[in-house]
Amino acid sequence: MIEIKNIDFTATFSVRHPVLREGKPVESCFFDGDDLKTTIHFGLFYDKKLVGVISIFKNKNAIFSAQIQFQIRGMAVLKECQGKKFGKQLLHQAEHHVIAQKGNLIWFNARENAVPFYQNSGYEILGNSFEIKDIGTHYIMYKNLGQ
After folding, report:
1. For the whole model, what pTM was predicted?
2. How far apart are CA 2 and CA 45, in angstroms?
3. Do 70 and 57 touch, CB atoms closer than 8 A?
């Protein structure tokens, strides 16, 4: 059974850490804005175990002209649960949330190896790749929501 529900930002660490911050201190799983009232965190539970997370921040990027923008950060699915379309379900949950908040655009910094996943869900790359220290190559990706 699969259930997606709101979770506290601290609950995201159990998935963020092994997937996105392996080998780094658990404190590196905290992102600026995690604890803001405008930020929401969703957890995907499979057989009552938290196996996937996504965080949505109300955050405007000056590169885009859309008025109400949201940024996805910390999206991760435990390795043993990847390939089951859990990430796609989390992404759809984030999109529904942004639409409900009258958002015009979702953007994020995608790891190079995740770009095809996001492209399959209608996200586009903007600009060239860039490096995030100690993490790797990233691309800015976005999707207009047509609000």
Report:
1. 0.94
2. 6
3. yes
